[in-house]
Predict the 3D structure of the following.
Amino acid sequence: MAKGTATSFEHLTETELTALLDPDLMPRHIAVIMDGNGRWAELRGLPRMAGHTEGIKSVREIITLCRDLGIAALTIYAFSQENWKRPIPEINALMLLLEHYLQSEMDALIEKGARFRAIGRVNSLPPSALNWVRKVERETAHLDKLMLTVALSYGGRSEIVDAVRRLAQDCKDGKVQPDQIDEPLLESYLSTQGLPDPDLLIRTSGEARISNFLLWQLAYTEMFFTPTLWPDFRRREALIALLEYQQRERRFGQVPGAVYPPSGL
Ligand code: IPE
Ligand code: IPE
Ligand code: MG
């Protein structure tokens, strides 16, 4: 498919959409800001929690899709540091939902070969939810078909602060010299250490902002914003996001087709 061509995928079936995907242009890492659960529920006259519960089905579908397409890493934003400012009953219900999800989904994750890992200040989670996070991390630690990272009590700025704090301590202890600090070294202190940067960020619900997600890692990520609310974002919508991504021209600051001198300057 020609790059930059405005194509409408709306009339195509899932099978047709899948057939259009170019296996050589698949993202290695997809990040998702799963937004719009509350509005999905409110539109139906339901309590906000109904939207969060329905959103779990979309989580399942995107995990399965990544697994089916051989996408190595999926990072999903489940609860931000700022989300602690929500009404306490909603926070409590979200924590219970997280616990139930981990409990009921652990076997399915194992069966899919998905390794689960949490990032964020997870020690702020209620102990029972944190126990399940640690249990699923342990039980899936040997799996490698899909790296599933779930951001919980996560904030991009505090992730950088935590990294810098540990790096400063290592400098103080003489393990690192300040002039050794470069981008790969700082990256190795981030919680996403070992993962490639996301190639594609998907945000649902029509908001076009980052909301403190993966601030360092998204430097050159392609952004896909869709008005679809997260509980409605199923396999079909994810396939369309992937096809749109495959039409992008990723430049990384360069001029396409230019011939570079050997120095790269
Ligand atoms: C996203 O849906 C889930 C979380 C942030 C936990 P929201 O709860 O933000 O839904 P809206 O944006 O209010 O519709
Ligand atoms: C971002 O969604 C956080 C998650 C999806 C977990 P929010 O709904 O919290 O973001 P804002 O408040 O609209 O920026
Ligand atoms: Mg929201």
In short: The chain is about 40% helix and 15% strand. The pocket of IPE (ligand 1) is lined by residues 34-39, 79, 83, 94, 205 (CB under 6 Å).
